[in-house]
């Protein structure tokens, strides 16, 4: 057995891979990655793959980025970790202050964890505990949108509406309520995306009118519901949801784990609606894709509801690695790149080129429906896709030096922000070629 074949066999025996039916690997081999270089992953046989999904949406500025790497090396020699109960350190303070400033101090208090699902759990717990501290313990239910995804721990599954992730565990979950998604694809002839948003907001209004007394919070993925298939919608929905949450005294949680950090075209997606939520969740891109880190940003009002002599009125969530200095340092280096390279402005040009390239490559393909884009996210649906399309496309793309993993019949890209013109062309052209091959 070659060294690689042996590594693959050992991985299948000893490593339980995520989001995977392990038996499928009898047909579809694992890919042993040796190293990364910018937007490319390089395997142990020297084959290269353009990372068209930023390694599950986390990597913003390429692999082995020297600026983030050097910041981490310096932090490693100074302080790798210290517990955050009773102690503090410069990276966590500086990161909290910089994020607060990015929200114009609307969200001036940062709570830390390590993964996105935990950020969801923390926001739900904080919201319900806020109402309890305000003498309304009955406000402890949650509302999410149809097709929502907020993570897969048992608490987060309560607000995740993706059948494949939820059905097997449904008996463990205290499910929340679902209201209609403002999915712009639901526009009737003559209707705009904003009309669909107003229709969905009317349904939210009706739900809250009846259930506000039991409802702690509405949780949404602003502008794009990513995991259920890159569902895009008009910012009007966020404006109306903010108004309705204010009117019915319900918190608004903006899960920007996927769409935050410039992905949507602004640093926070909520900025495009001109609103701030009561809780804003970050993870994935915030550390540049280097280390696990998640952050719940919240308001003075929420913070004040917990500030008391009584420990039991304080927020109770203990996580060993809260505010890990290395992860915070990676996030600070990531924010430095945003500032120094004016990434939001530069991404506008990159996103325009990405859109043009895909329009040219697949825009007139007879199977392509709803080609759509929001900042550095681009997707289309494939009509008449054969069963097993997603896995077939994945393999066909890999054979063309491209990493893309469709969600069902939706092909999408969420690339690192550093793509060159040649890389954009490769991404679009090889997507078209892989599409043709997987339909044949
Ligand atoms: C990925 C994701 C999560 C969960 O984050 P994990 O780190 O995978 O637990 C939650 N919400 C959204 C919108 C996500 O895209």
Describe the protein.
Keywords: Aminotransferase, Biotin biosynthesis, Cytoplasm, Pyridoxal phosphate, S-adenosyl-L-methionine, Transferase. The protein has 440 residues and is an alpha/beta fold. It folds into two domains: 3-64 and 344-439, Aspartate Aminotransferase, domain 1 (Alpha-Beta Complex), CATH 3.90.1150; 69-341, Type I PLP-dependent aspartate aminotransferase-like (Major domain) (Aspartate Aminotransferase, domain 2), CATH 3.40.640. Helix content is 38%, strand content 16%. It has 13 helices and 16 strands. The protein has helices spanning 3-14, 54-57, 66-76, 90-102, 116-133, 163-166, 193-211, 236-248, 300-306, 325-340, 343-362, 389-398, 421-439, and strands at residues 33-37, 40-43, 48-51, 109-113, 141-145, 177-179, 215-220, 224-225, 231-232, 251-255, 279-282, 294-298, 368-374, 377-382, 402-403, 410-413. The strands form four sheets. It has a seven-stranded mixed β-sheet with strand order 4-12-11-10-7-5-6, sandwiched between helices. A four-stranded mixed β-sheet has the order 1-2-3-15. A hairpin with a 2-residue loop joins β13 and β14. The mean pLDDT is 97.
């Amino acid at each position: 057995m070659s060294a690689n074949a042996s590594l693959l066999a050992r991985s299948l025996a000893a490593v339980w891979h995520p989001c995977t039916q392990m038996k499928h690997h009898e047909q579809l081999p694992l890919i042993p990655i040796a190293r990364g270089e910018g937007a490319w992953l390089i395997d142990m046989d020297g084959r290269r793959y353009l990372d068209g999904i930023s390694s599950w949406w986390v990597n913003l500025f390429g692999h082995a980025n020297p600026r983030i790497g050097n910041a981490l090396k310096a932090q490693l020699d100074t302080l790798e970790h210290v517990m955050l109960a009773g102690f503090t350190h410069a990276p966590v303070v500086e990161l909290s202050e910089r994020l607060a400033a990015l929200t114009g101090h609307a969200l001036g208090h940062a709570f830390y964890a390590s993964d996105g699902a935990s950020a969801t759990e923390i926001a739900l717990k904080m919201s319900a505990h806020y109402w309890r501290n305000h003498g309304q313990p009955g406000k402890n239910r949650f509302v999410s949108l149809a097709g929502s995804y907020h993570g897969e721990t048992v608490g987060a599954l309560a607000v995740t509406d993706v059948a494949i992730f939820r059905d097997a565990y449904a008996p463990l979950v205290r499910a929340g309520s679902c209201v209609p998604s403002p999915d712009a694809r639901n526009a009737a002839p003559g209707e705009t995306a904003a009309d669909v948003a107003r229709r969905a907001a009317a349904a939210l209004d009706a739900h809250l009118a009846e259930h506000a007394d039991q409802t702690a919070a509405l949780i949404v993925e602003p502008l794009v519901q990513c995991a259920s298939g890159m569902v895009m919608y008009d910012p009007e929905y966020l404006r109306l949801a903010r108004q309705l949450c204010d009117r019915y005294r319900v918190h608004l949680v903006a899960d920007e784990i996927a769409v935050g950090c410039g992905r949507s075209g602004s640093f926070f997606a909520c900025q495009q609606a001109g609103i701030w939520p009561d809780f804003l969740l970050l993870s994935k891109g915030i550390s540049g894709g280097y280390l696990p880190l998640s952050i719940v940003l919240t308001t003075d009002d929420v913070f004040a509801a917990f500030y008391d002599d009584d420990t039991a009125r304080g927020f109770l969530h203990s996580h060993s690695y809260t505010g890990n200095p290395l992860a915070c340092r990676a996030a600070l280096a990531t924010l430095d790149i945003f500032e120094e390279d004016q990434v939001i402005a530069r991404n506008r040009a990159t996103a325009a080129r990405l859109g043009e390239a895909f329009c040219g490559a697949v825009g007139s393909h007879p199977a392509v429906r709803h080609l759509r884009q929001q900042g550095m996210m681009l997707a289309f649906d494939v009509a008449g896709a054969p069963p097993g399309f997603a896995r077939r496309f994945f393999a066909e793309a890999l054979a063309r030096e491209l990493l893309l993993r469709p969600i069902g019949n939706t092909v999408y890209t969420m690339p690192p922000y550093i793509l060159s013109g040649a890389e954009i062309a490769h991404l679009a052209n090889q997507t078209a070629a892989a599409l043709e091959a997987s339909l044949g």
